[in-house]
Design brief:
Number of strands: 6
Distance between the termini: 19 Å
Strand content: 15-25%
Largest sheet: 6 strands, mixed
Shape: globular
Order of helices and strands: EHEHEHEHEEHHH
């Protein structure tokens, strides 16, 4: 499944352990290998020729350089935003992670909007509802998800284009034997703090999962 010619950003959502980062790394590896002359392990593949490729995956926090997880990511992304154009390929894993969720999600949305305006090719992953809402409403973004079997607590390795995926943090925490009273309290906190748009998105994800 591929994006349309007007879609520059692929947004992958879904739970932890669902395969988002592996998906990003696999795509990135294939793009690099293709530029080195290696064939793509796919039935069919059409790749542009990129002048530069930029990856922000993993955690490079450093005591020596006084970098936290967030500042490490932001230093890379700041550089990416300075040099990106229509011939740039960008991978951003868990964009906006490592800081206040509202500010992180707002930064992530603004960064993606900027890179889309530059017509860079972007593949990103996110848990943030605000970022997924942006992706759903933006004509240049394809929202997708990786499927996850909650009962078996393992990924199904199925890619679902056009469908955003929930994080299923409570279900995973329950499977990992976190106390039920803690999860119950967490659900109450979540319900109290969710906006109507977030509730609508979560309901949509549940309906899509059922379908």
């Amino acid at each position: 499944y591929s994006c349309t010619k007007d879609q520059y950003c692929l947004m992958v959502s879904g739970p932890n352990m669902g395969g988002k980062t592996v998906t990003l790394k696999t795509i990135g590896l294939f793009v690099v290998l293709a530029h080195a002359g290696f064939p793509i392990l796919a039935h069919d593949a059409l790749l542009p020729w990129y002048h530069s490729m930029w990856f922000d995956i993993g955690d490079d926090q450093s005591i020596e350089n006084n970098l936290s997880t967030f500042s490490s990511h932001m230093s890379k992304i700041a550089r990416i935003c300075q040099v990106s154009d229509e011939h740039t390929f960008v991978l951003l894993d868990e964009i906006g992670n490592g800081t206040d969720p509202l500010e992180g999600a707002s930064l992530a949305t603004a960064i993606l909007a900027y890179l889309i305006e530059k017509r860079s090719t972007i593949i990103t992953s996110t848990h943030y509802d605000q970022v997924k809402e942006f992706g759903k409403s933006d004509p240049h973004t394809l929202v997708s998800s990786v499927e996850f079997d909650i009962e078996a607590l393992r990924p199904t390795y199925k890619y679902l284009p056009g469908i955003s995926g929930g994080s299923y943090a409570f279900a995973i925490a329950s499977q990992l034997h976190l106390k039920k009273e803690i999860i119950k309290q967490a659900k109450q906190y979540k319900e109290e703090n969710m906006k109507e748009s977030q509730k609508a998105l979560e309901q949509l994800e549940k309906l899509q999962k059922e379908v």
